Fold Phenylalanine--tRNA ligase alpha subunit.
Amino acid sequence: MQDRLQALKEEALLKIQQASDLKALQDIKVSYLGKKGPITEVLKGMGKLSPEERPVVGAYANEVRDAITSALELKISELEQAVIEEKLKKESIDVTLPGRPVRKGNAHPLTAVIEEIEDLFLTMGFTVAEGPEVETDYYNFEALNLPKDHPARDMQDSFFITEDILLRTQTSPVQARTMEKHHGRGPVKIISPGKVYRRDDDDATHSHQFMQIEGLVVDENVRLSDLKGVLETFAKKMFGEERKIRLRPSFFPFTEPSVEMDISCFKCGGKGCSICKHTGWIEILGAGMVHPNVLEMAGFDSKKYTGFAFGMGPERIAMLKYGIDDIRHFYTNDLRFLKQFKKA
Ligand code: 2U9
């Protein structure tokens, strides 16, 4: 019986050694160690042995089974390792290959112009203030010297949500709110960029939603000449050091006196061309000295404090600066348009 076991052991170990895949090993396991396998058969026949022989043969049978089991386990792990190595070889990465280029985007032209304007005013000591786009009638109109039924409200056809709530038609309410927070103490020196809304039919130069940047300075002894100096610095930095500015009288309910500012044409230098409509001047923004009523409503003593304010449309600034002929280009996200503003 021991000889038989010995032969089975050698036969199984040889087959295990020669097996080339996991399936073959599984078959060997079943055929030698399974319930119907030869070793089980030998063990079943042990009853016929003498009591002296039984433990010896039993121990040997167990030894044979253990030897086959560990040979199987060893071969299985060898084959599994070989599979992993084969896979690693096939999937190896050539780290010396050049990388795929990362496609870089660019800022939207309107964002770029707004940030350029913000940076410019930040260097002059202004801070950037923001506020809600859904506003109350009070902050959008009344606090800016535009009481209900004031005829100047007609200039800003509005989207009302309720009788008292609307989409802001200008960013001026941000200034009114900021002044209130100062509790009548200056200085206030802010710019407020943001979206505004007016009921309008969209065309090449009109949009029901557009951007505004307004500025406000309130302090003791603020004069029209301060306004002129700040705006001249802005115009030269934005459109070239050779630019001249001129102020023309105008009307806004929140400022008195009010002005409109033109810059000398950057295309023709003032001689007259299609950009400046042959006048030599291009209108850039509106401005003025803050109306005493507006100061008082926001809690400032108008005998002690004065201020100036200005407002501009960044779309118009960008259109002039880059020769863009249709305001709708800013909002329709055509990549052929947007990609032209990629910086080198
Ligand atoms: C407060 C007091 C005064 C803001 C001002 C303008 C003149 C102006 C328009 C230009 C073109 C807006 O983009 S646009 O439609 N704005 O001309 N805005 S003064 O005056 C203020 C603001 C807030 C408390």
The chain has eleven helices and nine strands. The first helix runs from residue 2 to 18. The longest strand covers residues 209-219.
